[in-house]
Amino acid sequence: MKKISKLQINSEKLMNNDELMTLRGGYGGPGSYNCCCIGPNGWPTICGTFPDESSCSEFCGGKYWWW
Q: Structural domain of residue 52, as residue ranges?
């Protein structure tokens, strides 16, 4: 287990790429985009579904990852 200040990350519980690909399109519907805002540490902080990429960008303040 790796410690970062007060935050502890259990590497056994991190999602791998295959699990992330399974989530792709797992919620929302046609014409919706899944979006995760990227925090100052480079990790996703909050995720949601938006009607388009620009809505995601506005919500996250420009730093995001969408699919």
A: 31-67
Q: Is residue 10 part of a domain?
A: no
pLDDT band at 37 (very low <50, low <70, confident <90, very high): very high
Domain total of the chain: 1
CA 56 to chain centre: 11
Please name which of 24, 30, 31 lies closest in space to residue 47, comparing C-alpha atoms: 24
Rounded-to-integer distance, Cα 52 and Cα 67, Å: 10
Q: Which amino acid is at 65?
A: W
The confidence score (pLDDT) of residue 20 equals 65
Q: How far is CA 8 from the centre of its chain?
A: 19
Mean pLDDT, residues 58-66: 86
The answer to whether position 3 is within a domain reads no
